[in-house]
């Protein structure tokens, strides 16, 4: 696969995503203006919020993601973590990256990992303490190669931008629904004059329309994000094999992840805005293990048994049966 072509594609997708985000926020602003008769205040305000969110995401997005999961830099006095750093350095050289990504560890018993960063030279790889505990060197190499591939392809630029945008859409959605609920529960000054009552009723209707539109935009955004995420995972799996020349390492790691998912809870600190960054869904949503139109529409990750089957070139039914019996 041509990394340069993939990088250019991801750059174009990121620009397109940012443009669509600004367009959606401007549309929401126009709706606010139309409902409240305050044009262009609502439009300017929401475009301003969108720009601030994008700039804030570009300057501190990766740090925010790492902070949200309480990640810490590796402790090189620990043999496991020192070995992890060595693996990251080796695969950085193999991938032809100029600078080794920063390496972080988050305390969680699950096996999982992600990469983040708007720029290749300022990227980071983070793994769970469960990964260090349960994977051998070969399997860890497979996972790290997968994450290095995301950095090399500039998937991290696209996916971190998606996190920032989705976070904003969710905030607008929550603001509208909570304002609506607060006004409805408080009665909106019911004992006031009739003129005031009609004004509150107008605001309630306006907030309801805004909440519904924001929810619709958020849903459309999530579906688009889910589709992008699934494709990225398959590509990163393939490129991880290119880097390590060993499909068994990553497939072995995915097997352990699938088996552990039956017993462990969600990854601490992971949210719907960051779940697509991880190698496996940290929120353990069952839709990611299903197939069909709706599953394909709402899953962030492809089914693990399919990923293993592709890596090992065997029928996915066999792998699925093995995981179900195991």
Give an overview of the whole structure.
Helix 5 crosses helix 8. It is elongated and about 70 Å long. It has helices at residues 3-36, 41-68, 79-95, 129-134, 137-152, 155-186, 194-244, 247-260, 293-298, 304-312, 316-325, and strands spanning 72-73, 102-106, 113-116, 124-128. Strand 3 and strand 4 form a beta hairpin. It is built from eleven helices and four strands; from the N terminus they run ααβαβββαααααααα. The protein is mostly helical. The model has no long low-confidence stretch (mean pLDDT 85). The longest helix has 51 residues, at 194-244. 68% of the residues lie in helices and 5% in strands. It has a four-stranded mixed beta sheet, with helices on both faces. Its cofactor is Zn(2+).
Structural class: mainly alpha
**Number of helix segments?**
11
Kindly state the percentage of residues in helix. Answer: 55-70%
Number of strands: 4
Assess the beta-strand content as a share of residues: under 5%
Distance between the termini: 34 Å
* Succession of helices and strands: HHEHEEEHHHHHHHH
Let me know the largest β-sheet.
4 strands, mixed
- Envelope shape: elongated
Which strand order does the major sheet show?
Answer: 1-2-4-3
User: Regions with pLDDT < 50 over 5+ consecutive residues?
Assistant: none
Average of per-residue pLDDT values: 85
Supply Rg.
Answer: 22 Å
EC number: 3.4.24.-
Active site: 147
Subcellular location: Cell membrane
GO cellular component, one term: plasma membrane
């Amino acid at each position: 696969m041509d990394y340069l072509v993939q990088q250019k594609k991801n750059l174009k997708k990121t620009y397109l995503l940012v443009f669509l985000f600004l367009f959606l926020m401007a549309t929401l602003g126009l709706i606010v203006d139309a409902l409240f008769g305050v044009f262009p205040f609502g439009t300017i305000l929401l475009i301003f919020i969108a720009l601030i969110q994008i700039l804030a995401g570009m300057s501190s997005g990766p740090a925010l993601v790492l902070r949200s999961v309480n990640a810490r830099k590796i402790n090189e006095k620990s043999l496991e973590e020192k070995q992890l750093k060595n693996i990251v350095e080796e695969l950085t050289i193999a991938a032809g990256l100029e600078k080794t990504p920063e390496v972080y560890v988050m305390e969680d018993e699950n096996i999982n990992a992600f990469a983040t960063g708007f720029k290749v030279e300022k990227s980071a790889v983070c793994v769970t303490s469960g990964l260090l505990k349960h994977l051998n060197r070969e399997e860890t190499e497979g996972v790290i190669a997968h994450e290095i591939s995301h950095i090399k392809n500039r998937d991290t630029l696209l996916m971190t931008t998606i996190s920032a945008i989705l976070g904003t859409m969710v905030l607008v959605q929550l603001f509208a629904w909570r304002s609506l609920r607060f006004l409805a529960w408080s009665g909106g000054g019911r004992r006031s004059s009739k003129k005031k009552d009609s004004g509150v009723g107008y605001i309630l209707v306006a907030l309801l329309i805004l909440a519904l539109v924001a929810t619709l935009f958020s849903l459309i955004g999530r579906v688009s994000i889910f589709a992008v995420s699934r494709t990225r995972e398959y590509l990163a799996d393939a490129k991880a094999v290119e880097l390590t020349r060993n499909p068994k390492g990553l497939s072995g790691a995915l097997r352990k992840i699938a088996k552990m998912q039956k017993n462990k809870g969600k990854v601490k600190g992971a949210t719907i805005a960051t779940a697509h960054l991880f190698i496996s869904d940290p929120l353990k949503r069952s839709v990611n293990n299903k197939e069909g139109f709706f599953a394909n529409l709402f899953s962030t990750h492809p089914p693990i048994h399919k990923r293993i089957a592709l890596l090992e070139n065997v029928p996915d039914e066999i792998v699925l049966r093995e995981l179900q019996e195991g």
